[in-house]
Amino acid sequence: MADLIVKLAADGIQKKILHAGKQPLPAFIEGTKVIFHYKTTLPSEDATVIDDSRKRTKPMELIIGKKFKLPVWETILATMCEGETAEFLCDTKHTVLYPMVSKSLRNIAAGKDPLEGLRHCCGMAQMHDHHLLGHPDLDDLHNSPRPLIFTIEVLQIQVPGSYRQEAWAMTDEEKLAAVPEIHEEGNRLFKEGDIKGAAEKYHDAIACLKNLQLKEKPGHENWIKLDLMITPLLLNFCQCKLIQGEYYVVLDHCSSILYKYEDNVKAYFKRGKAHAAVWNIKEANVDFAKVLELDPSLGPAVKKELREMEKRVREKEIEDKKRFKGLFQ
């Protein structure tokens, strides 16, 4: 361990062990999965927190040898034991790409495409762009790279073959082959009532295809083929989000589908329900009218949604009258 710490220091990384883990130090052969929590802070007096995985749905997972976009994490994790908590102060040369990695991780935590907001170009070209990432703290760090402190808590270390490989860690061929299986698993979870689990599976499948699509020229035959595979998965994901009450996520995704496929009835129907849920009554009526225009057989379903929307509007009007009456009295 002493030799490892010396090597880290020579490479511009200072390690401070906060809690010792289970000895001995694992071999960390290629394919080893490390599950961990991380907190990223600025090395300032107020120790400004940039990211904290404990505030998200699940811990981070990294597979050794899969060329993670932030190589320093693989370097520092390979010095840690299971159960260990340590603090690493890393020089700027190791943290230049962190804003883009953080953007992707934030997208994942929010149920979005990990690559959303990142342009179709190489990492170095992205680093020369300005205000690319859409988060003020990341834009600031992006434009003015600086050292960072990573506080890492290793929860579990799994040797190759002892775990099911996550979609993001697969090769292109493995991703394409895995999508139908992931899709089916999402459907199974949905039928069983595990809406959260189903949404995660649909999201994983979408991420696989989006990653592949990024390597194709927009509008090219292969790009379109992948997009046609993404669309039903995205609609399933939106159905989960409707049930979970995340209506603005549904509005965003359905609008993105309709921007490309103007005759997608399911996208209009789901967007109409989302509009109704957030009191965009005019927009909901427009979407439901479009559903009837494209597929009159859905009349009963649309009428049911319109009745429920009208009922909610009447109840709200009554509630508002009572509230305003009380205020004037």
Automatic annotation (TrEMBL):
The question of whether Ribosomal protein is a record keyword is answered with no
Residue ranges the record marks as coiled coil: none
Which reaction does this enzyme catalyse, per its entry? [protein]-peptidylproline (omega=180) = [protein]-peptidylproline (omega=0)
Q: Which GO terms describe its cellular component?
A: cytoplasm
Q: Where are the membrane-spanning stretches?
A: none
- The EC number on file is 5.2.1.8
Ribonucleoprotein is among the record's keywords: no
Q: Which GO terms describe its molecular function?
A: peptidyl-prolyl cis-trans isomerase activity
InterPro entries (UniProt xref): AIP/AIPL1/TTC9 (IPR039663), PPIase_AIP (IPR056277), PPIase_dom_sf (IPR046357), PPIase_FKBP_dom (IPR001179), TPR-like_helical_dom_sf (IPR011990), TPR_rpt (IPR019734)
Q: Where is the PPIase FKBP-type domain?
A: 31-88
Localization, per the record, is: Cytoplasm
Q: Main EC class of this protein? A: isomerase
The source's superkingdom equals: Eukaryota
Q: Give the protein's function.
A: May play a positive role in AHR-mediated (aromatic hydrocarbon receptor) signaling, possibly by influencing its receptivity for ligand and/or its nuclear targeting.
Which protein are we looking at?
Answer: peptidylprolyl isomerase
**Organism of origin:** Erpetoichthys calabaricus (Rope fish)
The taxonomic lineage of its organism, from the top, reads:
Eukaryota, Metazoa, Chordata, Craniata, Vertebrata
UniProt lists the gene as AIP
